[in-house]
């Protein structure tokens, strides 16, 4: 088993043995608790230690920078205000619509048009894209990840050594460990659910299915070193309900599913995802759609309603935003899930960016790159709040209900409640002001003016 | 972040006067320092450092609004040369979102204040009326980005809009009646029914809950 070299054979042997023992011990310490759903508290301890180290590192940097008279830059944040990605036309139309009684097709210059420009001007004064990137003042805590820090210059030997040690630990120790765990988790899921699928239908099958699912998700949670705090667990979703949550990354699914047993909804993919999906559905009824079926809203609604009405089936997990949002705001919830008429259990998920930014910008990073980034961060720390169930009121329409749920989630998670469609992330959002905007505005007015004078 | 939790006297005072939370005041203070280059006051020239603002057609009016004594509540007319942080916050407070749980009176008051801010933007000579000249001036500025629009068309648009406003405020006018200008009350009348509460505010991100994650 061990490659026996003529010289240094003892050292190589020892090294090999100790590494194997180390890895096995760790796997045991991690997988066994995952199976039984208990925790040794190792991750919390890890988190506390890391925080202390970060605080020390930040202090060191501030001191070092003062000595050398360097300018300290604050890491890029998302800014202090939430800007609406609306376009000039939409907003002016909306303002005018709510005001005048005149027909919309003959708009002219109105006093209200000044609103849009005034507000945009104020927003840029408060917080503009270019100058906010660097601001020379108090440095927020540095988390020893150079990807989040613009300050990385040589400040002191100790700090650089610490950072280097951090890189070593993250890439050479944590990363292989996490990949091993992830691999274990996924393969156990596939194998486990397939095996459970062979059992005859009944309470034993359900019991086994639930525990196989939970166990594998817990292993995956440990694979990411996710430290999750659950609040208000008495409000957890029950059978026949729909669980609705805000969406920041694909990890959200793992986080929620490791604490509860849900039926997933989604499109069937090819490749590894497809294998996992097909295996999972053997053990318990998840709702998977073919690509063609996804476009058919009625079919989707029908199948979901069917699932929800069967009280023995599990609560469905849905992310109504439709895409990943960067965890500072909650965008428009698509109303489909709210039309079904089942009880909605809202869940708010908020990530702490200090240990690693969990947001998946799918137009920037592919899935594999994203997972790699996640696995080489220190940890994923987040909070999950289970909110009390909500039902649609008698004279409330689906959109209003969706907005109500969205506000509740945004309020709990401290996120800004935005009214606009998450789909804007993929389309090119019009920049606040370019020459074209002004031309567009003037065209709107003059064009209509000309029409009028012509008629 | 990382400084002590207790608010200093000044911050408490500012919270009371302007209605911002202590976190928001902290953030805005940082922004103020950035704009002023660490000086205690801001002058008009400091606004030239904001590239995005250059593209806004009414930038001169917006910048002017910061130094307008009426907005600063210091005098009924005139411009200040420079403003300190408290003045900065006073102007910013016109764009604070109105809380949802305030009474009717308070809501009306906030609305009026926001509309007054806009009125001052139009009424540049502080005489309490928006005259035809001032209106034309605003329209010309808004349309200034487009080189193809001549002054004449801009003027006629403004004239048409002014007539519209006049008919709302005064009703049908005699042919030789001169409309002197839109007063603040007329201005309010025009805005009746338009929901400006959501259009004229800037939303702050809530930074506090990040600390709750531990």
UniProtKB/TrEMBL annotation, chain A:
Bilayer-spanning residue ranges: 12-42, 155-173, 179-200
Subcellular location as annotated: Membrane
Keywords from the UniProt entry: Acyltransferase, Lipid biosynthesis, Lipid metabolism, Membrane, Phospholipid biosynthesis, Phospholipid metabolism, Transferase, Transmembrane, Transmembrane helix
Annotated metabolic or biological route of this protein: Lipid metabolism; Phospholipid metabolism
Domain of life per record: Eukaryota
GO cellular component: endoplasmic reticulum; membrane
One biological process term in Gene Ontology: diacylglycerol metabolic process
GO MF, one example: glycerol-3-phosphate O-acyltransferase activity
A matching Pfam family: Acyltransferase
Ranges of residues in domain Phospholipid/glycerol acyltransferase: 241-352
InterPro entries membership: LPCAT1-like, Plipid/glycerol_acylTrfase
Similarity-based family: Belongs to the 1-acyl-sn-glycerol-3-phosphate acyltransferase family.
Stated name of the protein: Glycerol-3-phosphate acyltransferase 4
Species per Swiss-Prot/TrEMBL record: Vombatus ursinus
Taxonomic placement: Eukaryota, Metazoa, Chordata, Craniata, Vertebrata
UniProtKB/TrEMBL annotation, chain B:
GO cellular component: cytoplasm; lamellipodium; nucleus; ruffle membrane
An example Gene Ontology biological process: cell differentiation
Keyword annotations of the record: Calcium, Cell membrane, Cell projection, Cytoplasm, Differentiation, Lipoprotein, Membrane, Metal-binding, Myristate, Nucleus, Protein kinase inhibitor
Location relative to the cell: Cell projection, Lamellipodium; Cell projection, Ruffle membrane; Cytoplasm; Membrane
Membrane-protein topology: Lipid-anchor
Keyword hit for Calcium: yes
Gene Ontology molecular-function annotations: calcium ion binding; protein kinase inhibitor activity
Protein family per UniProt: Belongs to the calcineurin regulatory subunit family. CHP subfamily.
PANTHER family named among the record's database cross-references: CALCINEURIN B HOMOLOGOUS PROTEIN 3
Assembly description: Monomer. Homodimer; disulfide-linked. Interacts with SLC9A1/NHE1; the interaction enables an optimal Na(+)/H(+) exchange activity.
Role description: Functions as an integral cofactor in cell pH regulation by controlling plasma membrane-type Na(+)/H(+) exchange activity. Promotes the maturation, transport, cell surface stability and exchange activity of SLC9A1/NHE1 at the plasma membrane. Promotes the induction of hematopoietic stem cell differentiation toward megakaryocytic lineage. Essential for the coupling of ERK cascade activation with the expression of ETS family genes in megakaryocytic differentiation. Also involved in granulocytic differentiation in a ERK-dependent manner. Inhibits the phosphatase activity of calcineurin.
The name this protein goes by in its record: Calcineurin B homologous protein 3
Originating species: Vombatus ursinus
